[in-house]
Structures are given as C-alpha cells and as structure tokens.
Amino acid sequence: xxxxxxxxxxxxxxxxxxxxxxxxxxxxxxxxxxxxxxxxxxxxxxxxxxxxxxxxxxxxxxxxxxxxxxxxxxxxxxxxxxxxxxxxxxxxxxxxxxxxxxxxxxxxxxxxxxxxxxxxxxxxxxxxxxxxxxxxxxxxxxxxxxxxxxxxxxxxxxxxxxxxxxxxxxxxxxxxxxxxxxxxxxxxxxxxxxxxxxxxxxxxxxxxxxxxxxxxxxxxxxxxxxxxxxxxxxxxxxxxxxxxxxxxxxxxxxxx
Length: 256
Description:
Elements: H1 4-10, H2 15-23, H3 25-28, H4 32-41, E1 43-47, E2 52-54, E3 62-68, E4 71-77, E5 80-87, E6 92-93, H5 95-100, E7 107-110, E8 114-120, H6 121-130, H7 132-148, E9 155-157, E10 160-168, E11 172-179, E12 185-191, H8 193-196, H9 199-213, E13 223-229, E14 232-238, H10 245-251
Antiparallel strand pairs: 1-8, 2-7, 3-6, 3-8, 4-5, 4-7, 9-10, 10-11, 11-12, 12-14, 13-14
Helix pairs in contact: 4-6, 6-7
C-alpha cells in the first residue's frame, strides 16, 4: 500500500505543500485517499490585499483553504458591520454555504495578499459521496462557528425568517424569528449540524417536537412547524417573553 507522500510524488505534489497539508486538522482526520482526492480538486488562486472575495448573500459555489496570508470575516446586519474572525494559514473559509446550500452568511476580505486553495461545491460533494468523513469534519466546523456567533444574518427557514440568536443548549441553538406573512414572532430551535449527522439523535430531536406538538396546555410552549433544511432540522415554536427557567430557579427554592 502506498503512502500519501508516495501518491503525492506521482501527482507532482511538492514537499512544501505536503508539509503544509500534514499540519491541517482537516487532512489529519480523514483517510489518506480522501486527502489525495481533496488535494487534486484544489484550484490555486491569489487574492490581493483589500479584496472582498466572498460577499454576504451570494451563492456559495466553493470553499477556500488559506495557504498563505490572513483574511477577515465580518457580518453585515441593519447597516452595521460585525467582525467575526480572522482566518490564517491552514484554516478553511466559505465552507458553510457549500455544506448547507444556503447563501453566503458573511463577507470575507483579504487583510494581506493571499494564496488560496479553492475547492468547488461539485468536487466537494463528489468526494463526500465516497468519503463521508470529509462532510463530518466540515459539519463539526460549521457547528463550532455557529455556536460562537452572537449575531446572525437574516436566514429563511420555510415560512419564517431567523433574525437573532436568543439561546444555546447542548444540542441546539435557539433563534428568534418571524412568520414572513403573518408577522408573528416565533422561536426557532436548530439542531446543531454535527448532531444532525447522528440518525439516533436526529430521531430523538424530531420526536421531542412531535411530543410537544401533541400537547395542549397554557403552560407548555406550542410547536408550530418542523423544517428539514440546510443539512439539519428546525423546530418552530411559540415565542414567549420572560425569564429562563435557570434564572427563576436561582431566585426561588421551588414551585408549588
């Protein structure tokens, strides 16, 4: 059996590129054959300092690996620009739209001159068909990045528009949203993408929604809808103003 480096020599991959690949967490967590296929799918490109090469709202046709230089990620909302992250060598940017099929969720600008490796959505999906580990890795990356966001772009989920982040749990992120035609506020609970890849957890999450939807009591939140989109599941619920249960429990010893 040949090693990745032996395959790399056959495909004229330089020693410098090989050393760079070895340091990347993506390439270290997937099978050798998948690493080689990803590398062969790479298109090299250069971006000048100050160039915006990913624009929020555009269709996402590719993801990028930063080979050299740094870029900044920012989110624009209601006329305000929010800095999100600085991305440097060995890191991936633009993966969320490729993985979920949504439009770009943020701007990405070159802070320095950049050397990038570009992988198109079609090539990425073909590799994932053969090597599900690649999709699992990026799904985990998307989950981590969404967990860190304190502000979110407006996102369409069926008949609803997500507007704000209002809570996080071990398995989900909760957003405030609004019904697009009735202008009714709702809470939208999104299963974290990494957990959505687990069939047993996904069934449990959807079962929770079905159970609550079957209940009718003034002290139980209403479930309006379930949407399967963007490689995950959303539970659309009644939005209730007030304190969290955690806050109330800190103020009182118990309930009647």
